[in-house]
Amino acid sequence: MSGYPFLTLTGTARERGYQYGSQVPELIKKNIAFYRTMFEGFGVPWETAGKISKKFEPFIRDYYPEALEEIAGVAEGANLSYEDILTINCRSEILFAKPDGCTTSCRNNPATAILISVKLGTGSNRLATRRSFWKFMLKDSRRF
Fold it and tell me: Which of 21, 85, 122, 131 falls between 20 and 30 A from 13, CA-CA?
């Protein structure tokens, strides 16, 4: 597949999620594989990330319950676990939930994205950087 897929999704949130999951399951699997590796690189096992993602469910349900229905539909359509789909949708919240250090933002020039780096973990010298870095690494897994 070259470029981004063009999909037409209709129906309820769950139906749209199912359609999405069933039409691009391999892209979703690549996305999960990417984030599994990234989380583990930052010392967060995928299973731990899944448990953390469940803590966000009440907030998502209060703010936008249809999102959880769509996540459930994606999982069903792609034949993947609900927890995996929830986890990749909570990826930033999971990584940035417990920063132990300062947050830095910089702008290289007006045409580039803002980069945000957060020190992760007590005594850690690891940084998670958001925007350009992740966009480059995700070019073949397509965010959704």
Answer: 131
CA nearest 95: which of 144, 46, 133? 46
Nearest to 129 by CA among 140, 120, 116, 139: 116
In 3D space, the residue among 2, 33, 38 whose CA is nearest the CA of residue 134 turns out to be 38
d(C-alpha 8, C-alpha 101), whole Å:
43
Copy the structure tokens of residue 110. 């007006």
- Give the global pTM: 0.68
Q: Which residues pair with 106 in a beta bridge?
A: 115
pLDDT digits (tens, 9 = 90+) for 102-129: 444 444 444 444 344 444 444 555 444 4
End-to-end CA gap in the chain:
16
21 touches 74 (CB < 8 A): yes
Among the listed residues 43, 28, 47, the one whose alpha carbon sits nearest the alpha carbon of residue 119: 43
Orientation of helix 65-78 relative to helix 25-41, angle to 10°: 110
